[in-house]
Amino acid sequence: MKEPVAAAALIVAATAAREVAWAPYSGYRVGAAVMDDMGRIFAGCNVENVSYGLSLCAERSAMAAAVAAGARRLVSAAVVTDAEPPGSPCGACRQWMAEFGGPGMRVVSVSTGGSRREWTLAELLPDPFRISPGEGE
Question: What is the C-alpha separation between 14 and 30, in angstroms, rounded?
């Protein structure tokens, strides 16, 4: 799958997931989608909880769906919010991405207004926690 086509498909899936996000406390709805090395797309949304620490980010929701389907290697991700400029994944989500994607994993963040930002995982998290050097790369 070519990169622009893959990014567009991820953005469509993340946008649809954002529509069903559960964000009654912050009102900040987020959708995310990840693609594995076989070209499969998995989507997720943020799910808030009145006890904020128990909330789940959209990116981790999408990655958990991927893992539940047997994916072990992620190559790209998209995040959709209404923030301007588009928000980047939080630190916990970046570390999760490091667990399943290499430093070249592509991450795109898009706002509902059309703004767009892109990074590699290495740019977002240059020195991820690893048990042993090179693990997961």
Answer: 8
Domain 3-124 belongs to what topology?
Answer: Cytidine Deaminase; domain 2 (3.40.140)
- 98-129, pLDDT tens digit by residue? 999 999 999 999 999 999 999 999 999 999 99
**What's the farthest any 2 CA atoms get from each other in the chain?**
41
Residues in a beta bridge with 36: 74
Active site residue: 3, 59, 135, 137, which one?
A: 59
The pLDDT tens digits for 28-41 are 999 999 999 999 99
Which of 66, 55, 56 lies closest to 100 in space, CA to CA? 66
A 10 A CB-CB count for 124 gives 19
Quick check: 66 and 92 in contact, CB under 8 A? no
59 catalytically annotated: yes
